[in-house]
User: What shape does this take?
Amino acid sequence: MRMATADRITAVVFFALGIAMLVGGYTMDRLPIRQIHPLSIPGLVPMILGALLALCAVLLLFQAGDREESSPEMLMVGGSITRLVLTIVLTVGYGAIMVDRLPFFWATAIFITAFMLVFSWSAASDGRARAVVIAKSVGFGGIAAFGIVMLFQEAFLVRLP
Amino acid sequence: MTALSDLGSALWALSTPMMLFHVAWSMLLGIVVGALPGLTATMGVALMVTLTYSMDTTAAILVLICMYVGAIYGGSRSAILLNIPGTPASAATSLDGYPLARAGRAGQAMGLATAGSMLGTLVGILVMVMVAPLLAELALEFGSYEMFWLAVFGVLISGQLTVTNAPVKGYIAGILGLMVAMIGSEGLHAYVRFSPTQQMNGGIGLIPAMVGVFGLAEVMTAMWQRQGVLAAARDKSDRIVPSFGEVWRYRATVLRSGVIGTIVGVIPGVGEDIGAWASYATAKRLSKKPEEYGQGSTEGLIAAETGNSAVVPGSLIPALTLAVPGSASAAVLIAALFIHGIRPGPMIMIEQPQFISTMGAILILAVIAMTIYGITMTRLFVQVLRVPYAYLMPLVFTLCVVGTYALSQRMFDVYVMIIFGLAGFVLRQMKYPMAPLVLGIILGTMLDTNLRRSLMLGNGDLWPFVTRPISAVFVAIIVMAILLNFGFTRRFLAGIRARVMRRTDA
Assistant: This one.
């Protein structure tokens, strides 16, 4: 995707967010029961910020139009989308699901092992190499998880999930 | 002289075996974090906060400062050997460091980088211990009006100076940060804003947000890109310790870059990378051999490294005296100071008069450790650079989870970290700077409460916002910064400059 196109899409999103913030600030409770000063209402700054974001979004929209003609800059160049998707699945799966449902040691050991396996697998060409990758991943995952638990829980007295 | 004698006393008080042990391990860890591409100084400091919960205040701050100094310095290792800056701060270092490494002079390049970092930090420390108390005294004159403008100034300048093109993306990042700060209970009437769940009533924590933006987003970026290949893998590393004459030759460059780096550090939210680029560009402009820059210029290398290291003490000046961070890492340090019961801001010289000297002493210990490691452990850092991302990144993300959870022992913070990480990755890919976002989160409350308090005090009168002396200065700078975005202002200033130059020549 071209950067200018991405900028145009985000400009629309930011404009909507700005207007939502402006409306949110305007409709926010003005605490009449507490008889506060009318200029100290809680919605004042959100209103200003919403208006400013909407204004910046309009500027971004204009700028995107100008830039499309002058530079063909592309978005997300120089990396692997597959590696990115795998990273997101593994990290979000671990942080948002596994840590909450499994004991921390097991969640961490599984996560590290899976991460290493996924990203080292393609480098292993034959059965023996794959066996080495599996052994290394499982071993490192278990040792690292144990080390992290010991370091934080016992040495630094930090409570773990 | 009082400042220097206070610094000496603080240094003596800190030189206990336990403190030196903390310096030793945290500096080593900091250099390793900085050396590894994909791990930044801000991420290192944010993750390290977790380890300091059970420490006493001074030890905790010492560990965090060592991590900060070490990581900024460590970035030069991968910049020189891999042509990949370990941290964004070392981007300018790679321009001349890598060509030197390819020419078989990696050892000399790393030695000069070490000398530059050491001298840059020392210049910054000197300025910090001299200037910070004066600034804190001036800050006592700040009322609500000035604090409001200070917050606006911080977010605006950071948004403007951290982007390479038009600043609109920097401004948007700053406004987004300020919007995040609007979530939760506000400061004047304790009214809860934009909080769909009880978990958000207290607002969004700075540490989970920063660990997401600088931790998970970095992990994603590192895995998305390919790992670099060592340029000087077979380098026989010539001498590492630079001769006195070699460094003395660049004394003017070192002093100038140190001062530039410190000044850049003082500007809110403008971090080490800008410090390095500003020093590098100035050194090139004033050099007798500008054609060598980018081809392996030792002067360019020392300018970049001095510049980025001097930002560290520089960024602590506004952080300690105004509670406005000079860099993203300094923002984490402010959060850590609050956790450990120290309230940075104008009252610091009254509540903790020795604290600035203690910070200076901590920085001196960090510099000593950094220099020793830099000279003696070059080969170890080359080995560290060989660690595959598949091993490293899951460990980093595990630390991100532990760090955010440990703060308040709730999973909600981990979810916040993940959301900020995903959003941060997308925004970074779209060239939105992260420093204004972070600055917005940290300064949002200051801006909000001081604006409304000022309006209440003046009963809606807007004049004091522009007529009070310090406010007027802030307004002038802010208006000037905004006007500089327009072509007609730049043309007008260029015309004046040309006229002055002509008159000088005549």
User: Anything to note?
Assistant: Chain B touches chain A through 62 residues (CB under 8 Å). Chain B has a mean pLDDT of 89.
